[in-house]
Structures are given as C-alpha cells and as structure tokens.
Amino acid sequence: MLDSAEDFLGRVTFVTGPEKHCGKTTFMNRAAELARRGARASGRPGPALLTAGYDGESRDFLSGARKPAVPVWAGDFVLTTERFARPCFPEIIDVLPGHTALGRLCVARARRASVVALVGPDGNSQIAWAIDRIVAEGLTDTVLVDGAINRITQVASINGARFVYVLRVDRSTLAQALAKVRRIGMLIGLPIAAEASSEAFWLDDALTAETVARLPAGAREVVVEDLTKVFLGDSELRAFIRERALRVRRSISFGGFVVSCRGLCDDEFLGALDDERLAGMIAFNPYELARGMVA
Amino acid sequence: MNGGAWRFAQLDEFWVHYQPLTPWGKDEAQAQTVLVDRHTIESRFDDIDGVLSLMEALAGEPSALDRLSYHLRRMPRVPLERKEAYELLELFQFKKFMANYRGVAATLRSREAASHWLPSIEGTSNAGLLAAELDRGGSDPETFYIADVYDPALAAARAGIAAADEAVGIERVKAEAATRLEYGLSFDGREFVVAPRDVARTMAEAGGRWTVEPYDDTRYIVRIAPSAAAIDAMADRARFLEDERIAEARVVDRISAVAGAAVPDLLAMVAAVTRLDRARASAVLAREFGMSRPVLDSGVTRLVGARFVPCADECGRLGLSYTPLTSEFAADAIVLFGSNMGGKTVVLKTLLFMQLLAQSGNFVPATRFETQVYARVEYVGELAGERLTGLSGFGLELWRLIAARDVPLATFEGGPRGSDGGALLAFDELARTTGSHEAEALLSAVVEAYASSHGDRAFFATHFRGIARMPGVEYRRMRGLDRAAAEMHLGHLFDGAPGAGRPLAERLAGINRSMRYEVLPDDGADVESDALAIASFLGLEKHIVERARYYLMKGSFRESR
Q1: E strand or H helix that includes residue B549
Q2: Whether B162 contacts chain A with CB within 8 A
Q3: Contact A126/A5 with Cβ under 8 angstroms?
C-alpha cells in the first residue's frame, strides 16, 4: 500500500501529518519518485509538487530544524516562487494572483533535474486554484501536496483527491500516535449527513470542546462541514460519539497512514493498535529496508 | 456619488450579472463607478451597440464568441510602468498577455472588426518587437523560459550543467549497483535508506563510500557518499550554474529594455482590451435582460416598461406578478403618494436603478428610458440595517438631507452641486418617524426648496396627504388597491375569520393580485387609504379593523383625542 506508482498516478494526494518534521516531505519525495517512474512508463506527464506552506530548504524557515530538500526531474511541475524555481530551469506556466512573504508564486515546468524549495500560498483557495489550473488545463493529473491537515478542506471538492496521514512513532510517543491513528480512523468513517434531516443540528463552526458545551441538549445528531472541522482529541471524540451521532456534509477520501517507527518495530506498533480495520490502512516507512526485505 | 443610492436601488444584486473577464474590467466592475460625463457614457453605449452588432454577425459561429471570452479571461495583469529589469514572471505575463491579445484580434479580424477595437502589434511597433522577442522562449505561445537562443553563453553553460548532471547520475547508478551487489541494499532512487544495524555497521567499516548514522538501536541510516568523480562534476555544475545565472541576467536586462520601450504601446493595448471587455460584458448583460439604450438628452424623465430587476426576481421567487413602470416626470420636485405596500418605494428604486445603470455606462432593462446625466444621484434616508452613532432614524435622515443641501460639507465625484446636470434625489418617507404635523411641515418646506432648484430633480415618496400644494410641483399617487378585484379574489379575507391562519405567502399573493402598481396624477382630492384593507388582508383581527374604520368615518381623528 502506498508503495507503487498506481497509488499516486492520476490522483491529487495531500500528504498531511499531525506536526512539523513528521516525515511529510520525505514521504512526498518517495511518492513523487514512484509516480514519476510510472508516468514515464505509461507516457504520462510528470507529477506536480506543491506545498501548503514553505518547504524544501535544508532548514525549516520558521524553526531552523533540518528539513529534506525536494528533488524534481525534467517534466515535473512545481508551485513556488521564481527565485526558488530557478535551479530547475523553469518554464513559467502561470502566475498565481497575489503575493506571499517570499514573493509571487508561479506554476512552472522543470526543464532539468534539480533540487528546489517549494513555496505554497497562504490560503486554501489558492491551493485549489493552482490544482485546478494544473489538472483542468491538462498539464498533469498527478498532484502531490505537502501540507498540514487543516489545509485539506479543498480535497473534498477535487475529483478523485484524497489525503494520506504521515506520522513518526517512538516508544515515548506510542500512546499519542495510537490515539491519533484511532482519531483519524473515526473521522474518516463519519457518515455523510442527509440534507433533508430535520433532526440534525448543523454546526457552521468547528466542533471544539467549547462548541460542544454550547450544543443544545436535544441535539442528538450533529453535522459539521468535514472532518477538518473536528477539533476533539481521541478520547473526547469517542465520548462525543457515544452520546450523539456525528456526521459530515462532505467526505474527504483517505489514502492511508504512513507510520515511521523508531525504537520499536512495525509489528509492535500493530500489536499495540490492535485494530484490524486500521491495520489494513497502514503502510510503514518507505525508506526502511528491513531484514528479509533487502534486495 | 452617494453609495447610499446604489444600495437603496439594490444595484449590488444586479451587478453580479455584469461580468467582465479581464483583470482591468473586473477592477472597474468592483469600483462601481458612476459616470457624470455624457460624452463618455454615450461612447460606452456606442461600444455596447458595436459588440451587439458583432454578436449578431457571429450568431452562426458561436465558437468565435467563446474564443473571444476565452482569450479575454486568460489575460494576466501586466506591469505597466517602465523598469530597469523586469522579473522573469513579469516577462511571462507580457508574453501571455500578448498571446491572448493576438487571440482576440484574430477572432475579431475575421469580421474586420479588429482595427476598430484593438491597436495592431504586428510589424515594427515596440509591442510587436517585444512580442517577437518573447516568442523565442517557451514551448507554448503562453509559456516562457529563457531559452538558449537568447545568449550564446547559455547553451554552453547548460550543456556543462547537463554533462555534470549526467556524470553525477552515472556515479550514482554505479554506487547503487555496488551497494546492491556487495550488501544487498537497494536504494532504488531513495536518497537514503534505513538498514539493519549489522549490515550498516559493516558498510561503515568498509569506509568512505557510504555515510552511516544511527536511527535507533537496531537500525542505521545509510547514504551513498559521492565519489571523487561525482564531487568534481558537482563543482563543475556549480561553476556552470554561475555562468548561466550571469547570462540569464544579461538576457533579462535586454528583454526588459525592449519591454520598457513598449510600455506606451502596452498601456494603449490594455486600455483597448478593457474597453472591449467592458462592452462585451455590458452587451451580454443587455441581451440577457432585454435592455435598451437610454436617451440622455431629455429634460423629462420618461420610463416605458422599466423593470426593476431585483423586485421582479423577488416577485418571481414568491410566485407574485410584477408590473414594470411606465411614467414620466417633468418637474423639479415630484411628490408621490401611496399607501403602504402600494409600490411607491419601488418606483423610487426603479428610478435610481435605471439612472445609476445608465450612468455606469450600461443599457437599462426598459423598453425606453429618457433622462439626462446628473452630477449627483442620491438617496436621502435610512438604509436597511443602518445606524449612525448617536442618531435616531430621523436624525440620520436629517443628517443626509443637510449633506445633500449643503454640498460643501460633502464631496462628490461629479463635482459640486450646481455643476452641469444637477442632482437626481430620492426621498423615501422623509420624516416618517416624527409627528405627522411637523413631518408634513418639514416635507412641504423641503419640496418647496427643490421645486425651485433649477436643474435638480427630487422625488418624494410619502403617505402624508397633508403636505402643501405648490406650483411647480408634480403630485402623483400610486393607483393602489383595486377593491373590486380584491372583493372578488379575496373577499373571504376581508370578512376576517375564514382567512385567519392562512400563510403569509397566500396573503401577499392576494394583495399582489389586487394591487395596481401604476402611477397616476393626484389632484388632491381625498383618497381613501388602503391601509385598513391591507391590514385585513394580512390578518389583523376583524373587530380592530372595524373600529379603525369607525374612527376614520368619524372624521377628524385628531379632534376626537
């Protein structure tokens, strides 16, 4: 799962994760490599690589922590500023409206292999604009977006789009990681609300501990826009779902979890998770060559 | 211009249908500019007629119109100031703009209309030279890169980079193959791998060719270290990249000089495109709503079949019928009487709607609309949901009235009051929130002031019948409820009980079917108000309506107190 070109070709995939440095960009680089090879083999255009934020420099722009670079090949598409695109000898395809702190953004086609820094727009609507520009105009149908979970609302409106959830786990964070997996597992399983349901309480706002406290006692069925509007932790969400039915207006397709274990083995993680349904959605560190998997 | 007039006339609701496609057309639409120069407005009307003729000529070829829209929509904003050096993205924007400009011209040229709308950029004009220069870079008419042809040094630098990349790639392939062969680890394009500790340790001990660092207590991260040949190639690459950067900067400077010289041409092209875009949007609007060209040299305000579209739309949604306005007004002050729900406010809105649309350079949804161009178009009164700190509704009305009268206190785009064209003003129920004696007195005085204003035209909608009758003022009234029709259609509601509990929509439909939204002359004779009948229609208790009729019949309501 999530280890072949077919998992990414012809799709818009948002690579998300719970925090910085959880391995999103590293996973996206691997996915891009697989997609690129698949595209070449099938005569399709290369992938488009985007970020919802700023990526690709050796150090994080905000925290200064080490960050992986983003390699591109001739024929790939990138969304970034002109300055950051320069190393790949860019052919400018379009310019996004507005400015970012790092300059104006453009969609460009790489004319040679290089390492670039991706820069993303501030708002979800501009990510959607760029994806639409790339896909609708037939530049490529394979798009990878590196971005935080709260930037994936647009996924729902893009045909065939989905998100994957990347997280790293060690012994000290195992319990939290399991809770995150279970929480996402619950969120992706939320049923879609029937428009006609007059019983339902339609919440325009996000579902937080505060909004939960303000819900009418009689609201047995609560509807939120999509899973990104739920800001309850695993245990709070469980408690909420025990008492009320939670539904979404729009579903967001899910591609799976990518779990990188450190200090524990993959089987230990699955054992601790103890959930067959969720286990079927998990892929492990694509950079790991475990004993017995070495070629 | 008074933004209140725009809001009162509900033009925002209609304005969403006006959809220019270029960035400059959209800017204009967003600005909602009301023009005060008749020549400019007539030119805009001529342009709309021109596009309507073009549409007619292209009726058998709809794809041509689609192509026109396609190219206008794809035009990017371009820098219109001269610069020493433009950014690469700006050069791209020039190219994309000109590609679509030529696309528009080609669409029009087939009908020999291009020269009427667009200046030519072919040949030796500065814009033509810029277009030719930019066409040398890019795999598509709309894309751009700094191609090798721009500078002899570029090809050499890029060949060097490509050779270095190839050398690094070959070294990498060799190293990956050796790693697979010697240790069974397949990098398969990965930058690094996480490998079992014992394997990785052995690789570290083998020295030099791999870098190894701990991942956890059972696994290590392994990277392939570049060979000496790869390091040499990377050094070459860095040098060639620097050569490329210098050559690219030279190219950008040279194209920037060409672009700078073309700025006056580009300004003219953008102006031409904006004019065409604006006229296209207006023509589409005119077709969609069956609009006609206003006549702007009339001393009389004449409306024939004028449709106040927001109201017509709302009536449609509610299943009610809508009556277009046909009327004419010649005096400087016009007083319009009418009962509640009789349509007098809609008359005011219709007037401002037509006038503002005409002065925005658009046709109007009327069979005929005759008017003049006013320096100001204003609404005086309170708007829905509006409150000004410290002022009541009456206070706000007065504040607006003072501003309208005392122009030096207010600024208007069209210049001060008294300039050519005067002002068109709409007063809706002025002083309605104060006592009726004082309200009638105040209203009479304001009407009197505008009756001799010479050049302004002021409309006053009111239900105060006691306002003074003065020479030079036109008095009109809404025809109001057709009681015979009402008795026939909704007699049971007049009777009270049978109508009780009926939904509002049915009651509104009843009023709507029986109301005659027509403007008639008012001769001052006492006209019975429709207020009590409407109260009945809306479901007020029968005995209260009867008592109200009793007090009305009794004569002077004031004297009975």
Answers
A1: helix B542-553
A2: yes
A3: no
Q: A292 in a domain, yes or no?
A: no
Residue B468 sits in which domain range? 297-480
Question: Nearest by CB to A92, which of B92, B158, B190?
Answer: B92
Strand ranges of the sheet holding A201-202, from the earlier edge strand across to the other edge: A201-202, A221-224, A245-248
d(CA B329, CA B372): 12
Judgement on whether residues B51 and B81 belong to the same structural domain of the protein: yes
Does the CA dihedral B221-B184-A8-B139 come out positive or negative? positive
The residues near A45 (Cβ < 8 Å, ≥ 6 apart) are A39, A75, A77, A139, A140, A141, A142
Q: What is the CA radius of gyration of chain A?
A: 20
With beta carbons under 8 A apart, name residues in chain B contacting A38: none
- Check whether A62 has a pLDDT greater than 90: no
Of residues B416 and A281, the one with the higher pLDDT is: A281
Residue pair A116/A77 in contact (Cβ under 8 Å)? The answer is no
pTM: predicted TM-score of the whole model, two decimal places: 0.84
B522 residue type, one letter: D
pLDDT at A125: 81
First-last CA distance in chain A: 19
The CA distance from A276 to A269, in Å, is 12
Q: Detail the DSSP E strand segments found in B105-182.
A: none
Same domain, A25 and A136: yes
Q: Which of B458, B480, B502 is the last residue of a domain?
A: B480
Contact A62, A72 (CB under 8 A): no
Q: What part of B 197-216 touches A (C-beta under 8 Å)?
A: 199, 215-216
Contact across the interface for A91 and B145, Cβ inside 8 Å: yes
To the nearest whole Å, the CA of B383 is away from the closest chain A CA by: 29
Identify whether the C-beta of residue B154 lies closer than 8 Å to the C-beta of residue B246.
Answer: no
* Cα distance between residue B37 and residue B30, in whole Å: 20
Give A95's contacts in chain B (Cβ within 8 Å): 76, 89, 92-93
pLDDT band of B526, cuts 50, 70, 90:
low
Task: Work out the minimum CA distance from B34 to partner chain A, whole angstroms.
Answer: 27
**For testing the chain B interface, which of A3, A78, A89, A171 should be mutated: the one with the most B CBs within 10 Å?**
A89
pLDDT (tens digit, 9 = 90+) per residue, B193-234? 999 999 999 999 987 899 999 999 899 999 999 999 999 999
For residues A231 and B383, the model is more confident at A231
State the smallest CA–CA distance between residue A261 and chain B in angstroms: 9
Of the candidates A91, A112, A287, which has its C-beta nearest B192's C-beta?
Answer: A287
Report the amino acid identity of residue B76. P
Residue type present at position A235: S
- Polymer length in residues for chain B: 561
Candidates B26, B92, B202, partner chain A, best to mutate (most A CBs within 10 A): B92
CB contact under 8 A, A92 and B145: yes
Nearest residue on chain A to B195, alpha-carbon basis = A289
**Same structural domain, B206 and B346:** no
Burial group, residue B31, by CB count within 10 angstroms (0-12, 13-18, 19+) = exposed
Chain B, nearest residue to A171 by Cα: B216
- State the pLDDT at residue B384: 65
Q: Which residues pair with B424 in a beta bridge?
A: B377, B457
Rounded Cα–Cα distance for residues B454 and B440 (Å): 23
- CB < 8 Å to A74, chain B: none
Domain of residue A90: give its range: 5-164
Q: Distance, in angstroms, between A13 CA and closest chain B CA?
A: 20
The token duo for B179 is 């790693």
* A52 and A158 share one domain: yes
